[in-house]
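Quick one:
INPUT:
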């Protein structure tokens, strides 16, 4: 029986591409490139810190990734502008179907489980207005690890008393799907661009835009680890999926 619906935050409930308005205003013509490299390095640096055994919180990771991005592109930002750009991660735009999906799932515990630091998550959730639609916001910071470390996913049982087999984990991030499946969650992957649509974009763009390259790297099902139990193209499809899965036993990973 499903007792809880657990969401990733960045890229799942909140659109990381929404920082592009600010990055392009700061550096016209470079906004999309900054946005893609920044997000890729943000993830890479979280894993790098984890593998080195030198944990820092996700806010520091986010700033380090932005420093790398601007330096690589030969762009300079004073302290005020740097902080203004970095702060956009605390004001990400929620996907337009997020609020309605959360409202429709009110019979379940609804939680975020994210790599974001507690302050970052409080800021972005509060800014979005989704705070009243969530029962818990779980940050990996208390474990001093990053997803997909299995210890991160243990937060759900530690803090809410919900076992993996009693939850549906929802993410658009392939690494997160693999991590959640590895510890026994049923997982719904949000596939906002299909493999066919991505291939068409890659073939029609010469050269591919930074946003399309990002989608090729980060928006598809990973080929290592177990696949998701279900795929949906948007959060709007989630309530119907939950109804269909509610009484099914979790499959073995």
């Amino acid at each position: 029986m499903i007792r809880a619906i657990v969401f990733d935050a960045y890229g799942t409930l909140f659109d990381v591409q929404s920082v592009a308005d600010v990055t392009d205003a700061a550096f016209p013509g470079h906004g999309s490139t900054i946005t893609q490299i920044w997000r890729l390095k943000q993830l890479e640096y979280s894993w790098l810190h984890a593998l080195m055994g030198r944990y820092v919180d996700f806010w520091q990771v986010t700033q380090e990734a932005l420093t790398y991005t601007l330096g690589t592109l030969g762009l300079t930002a004073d302290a005020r502008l740097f902080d203004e750009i970095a702060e956009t991660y605390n004001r990400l735009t929620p996907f337009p179907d997020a609020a309605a999906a959360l409202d429709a799932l009110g019979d379940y515990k609804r939680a975020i489980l994210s790599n974001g630091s507690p302050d970052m998550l409080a800021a972005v959730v509060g800014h979005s207005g989704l705070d009243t639609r969530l029962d818990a916001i779980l940050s990996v910071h208390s474990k001093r690890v990053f997803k997909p470390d299995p210890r991160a996913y243990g937060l759900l049982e530690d803090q809410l008393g919900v076992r993996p087999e009693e939850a549906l984990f929802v993410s658009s991030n392939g690494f997160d799907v693999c991590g959640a499946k590895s510890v026994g969650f049923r997982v719904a992957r949000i596939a906002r661009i299909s493999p066919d649509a991505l291939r068409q974009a890659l073939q029609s763009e010469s050269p591919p835009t930074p946003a399309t390259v990002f989608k090729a790297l980060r928006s598809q099902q990973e080929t290592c680890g177990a696949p998701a139990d279900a795929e949906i193209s948007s959060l709007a499809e989630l309530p119907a999926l939950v109804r269909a899965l509610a009484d099914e036993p979790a499959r073995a990973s």
